[in-house]
Amino acid sequence: MLKYETSDETWAALAGRHGTGTERVRGLPAGVANQVFLFGDDLVLRIPRTEQYLPDLVKEAAVIPAARAAGVRTPEVVAFDDTCSVVNVPYMLLTRAPGADLARRELPTSDSDLVARQVGRELARLHRLTPAAAPELRALPADDGAADPWALTERLRRAGWLDAGTARWLTGWFDRLAAHRPAGPSDAAGLSHAADSPYSTDPFHSTDRSPTVLIHGDIAPQNLLVSAQPARLTGIVDWGDAQWADPAADFAKMPLTAVPAMLAGYREENGEPGASSAPVWEARVLWIHLTWALGRLADPVPHPGERHWTAPPPSRLLGLLRFFASGPPAPWNDLV
């Protein structure tokens, strides 16, 4: 697999093309997919680690302008080149959002909730983009939301990860959550999945009823840039996991403790009243958190050094325990 390596010649060509000196290129914390550099004071340079991750960068170049046009706070694409015709690596140059990522901040609860509300409002703007509203993005992958938590629970019981009593309890919990959930994502807008699409995944044939919208796909603390004083969301970064999906999936990579404030901001932006006696949104989000937590049981390998909060195998289950042990607000306390 081709690995993208930079050299002095690479830096000199990029610096000359974009008006800065090579001495002003500094490394930033890298992600799984990209090397990241501060390019001068106002720009951020991203280079995929290998050709495996290039399609995600191509996707970002298409999605970010659409998200910005929808009013989402995300850095602007200044330049993108995947041809390797000017330098020997593909790259993306973005404006720099001020602040540090939320994973590095140690904010008090009141400030964390304020930022979470702001994130929810940004998601409400993003989720107004449907296949009909953004036809230029119709080739993005679509998630059918087809995970079956009952089948997963039974597999875990058979494999010895769950005892029979716990499996029955979990099955009952999913039964209760299912009563509040819409059936699943809708394909009424006619999503296209051509086999030669650079983003294509398995065909998506669902005819269920919940909306399919553009989601970021990795709304997590390390991808949220925040200023500290005052606490304010300054940008959402890393759009490589964007796809068409149930909007509830965009609440599944944040700790559950942040989700009530996120949903409050989401509802505010959409002009909706607060949580109702029919907790559809809460049930949809909890369903995903619980399903993914159980799925991690069968993949108990830790990933030391990775920054996302779900890297340790028990983190999601412990996050659920922490959330419900803290006395969550209504209607969450009625969903157990």
Question: What does this protein structure show overall?
Answer:
With 336 residues, the protein is of the alpha+beta class. It folds into 2 domains: 16-95, Phosphorylase Kinase, domain 1, CATH 3.30.200; 100-334, Aminoglycoside 3'-phosphotransferase, Chain: A, domain 2, CATH 3.90.1200. It is 33% helix and 13% strand. It is built from 8 helices and 10 strands. The protein has helices spanning 8-18, 54-69, 109-126, 149-158, 164-178, 259-269, 280-297, 315-325; strands spanning 25-28, 34-39, 43-48, 77-81, 91-95, 100-101, 213-215, 224-227, 232-236, 243-245. The protein has a 5-stranded antiparallel β-sheet, covered by helices on one side. Strands 6-8-9 form a 3-stranded antiparallel β-sheet, covered by helices on one side. Strand 2 (34-39) and strand 3 (43-48) form a beta hairpin. Helix 3 (109-126) packs across helix 6, helix 4 runs antiparallel to helix 5 (164-178) and helix 4 packs parallel to helix 7. It is globular.
